[in-house]
Amino acid sequence: MEYRDTYDMNGRIMRHSLPTGVNLAEEEYLKMVEAWIVNPRGEILVQRRSLNCIIYPGYWTLTTGHFQSGESAHDACVREVKEELGIDVSACPISTIMEISRTPEGHLLWELLLVEADFRTSECKFEPLEVAEAKWVAPDEFRNMLKNDRMFYYPEICDVIEIVEKFSL
After folding, report:
1. CA distance 32 to 66
2. How far apart are CA 131 and CA 36, in angstroms?
3. How far is CA 51 from CA 22, 84, 152, in A?
4. Strand-pair category, 63-66 with 30-38
5. At a CB cut-off of 8 Å and minimum separation 6, what does 58 contact?
6. Domains in the chain, please, with CATH?
7. pTM for the whole thing?
């Protein structure tokens, strides 16, 4: 069983080690991580969600997941990439892009991290219940996937693409 901590809207811890599935109080939030994995050519790694996923089956997304109890953003990022893609990014440079709060849609505090890595997608070992495939895409292709409703969209995603593009110049 996985355990998670809960936080207030400012990211301060409220409760430790709650089992997954416990209902949150109105003032509680969960922390989530989103990994923007970028290679030296400025391409972004996207993954297509398994058709078995309850949320957005078959959509292209980035590597995401909940923080586990006691984890830092860096640790959650490394763990999620390893779990979903089978790739160890623990030795890669990882930095914060931005933090986003989502309310009332789910009481989530997102930390978006930039992971500088280079590997072939053939090296990935996908978690079959979560990931069907992965590929590297240029920022313009990423934008086209958003326009064509093939990529999960959220309001800040275009700003994040611009930040990632500036990084890779």
Report:
1. 4
2. 16
3. 26, 14, 14
4. antiparallel
5. 48, 49, 51, 132
6. 3-168 (3.90.79.10)
7. 0.94
User: Cα 104 to chain center, whole Å?
Assistant: 20
Whether the bond between 104 and the residue before it is cis, its omega within 30 degrees of 0, is: yes
* 91 Rama class: left (phi>0) / alpha (psi -120 to 50) / beta: alpha
- pLDDT tens track for 114-164: 999 999 999 999 999 999 999 999 999 999 999 999 998 999 999 999 999
The DSSP secondary structure of 92-151, one letter per residue, reads S-EEEEEEEEE-SSS-EEEEEEEEE----GGG----TTTEEEEEEE-HHHHHHHHHTT-B
Query: Residue 3 corresponds to which tokens in the numbers above?
Result: 């355990």
Residue type, 149: D
* Matching residue, tokens 């997954």: 20
Question: By C-alpha distance, which of 95, 110, 96, 116 is closest to 168?
Answer: 116
